[in-house]
C-alpha cells in the first residue's frame, strides 16, 4: 500500500487501524457489531460496524514451488516476456498457464487493473485453447 494512503487512513477519526492481528470471530444479529481479535496471545473484542482487511503486499506463491511457474526475487509470478520468449502478456513460464492480478510481477497493484487482467486472461485462454484444438 502506498504511504500516502497509509497516512490518509491513519488520519481518519472514524477509523481504527490494528496491525498484526488475526480476526477470530465476527458477531452481530442483523449487521456486524463486534470483531474478536487475536494479537499474539491476547484476545480482545472491538465494537465495529465494518471491517476492511489489508493482508499485505507479499505474494502467497510458495505453493507454486516445483511446478515450473517462474517467480521473481520477491515471489511475484513472471508473465509475458519476463516469463520467457514468446510468452503472451499474462502467460507464465508454463505454456497455457496464465496469471492475473496483484500476484503478477510488475502489475500496478490496483483493483481495477486486476479486474482488467482477469478479463484479458479469459480472452488469452480462449485463444490458447483454439490454437491447441487447431493443432490437434
Automatic annotation (TrEMBL):
Family matches, as Pfam families: Pyr_redox_2
Coiled coil region boundaries: none
Organism superkingdom: Bacteria
Gene3D superfamilies named in the record: FAD/NAD(P)-binding domain
Domain FAD/NAD(P)-binding, residue spans: 3-118
Keywords: Flavoprotein, Oxidoreductase
InterPro entries given in the database record: FAD/NAD-bd_sf, FAD/NAD-binding_dom, Ferredoxin-NADP_redctase_2
The protein's name: Cyclic nucleotide-binding protein
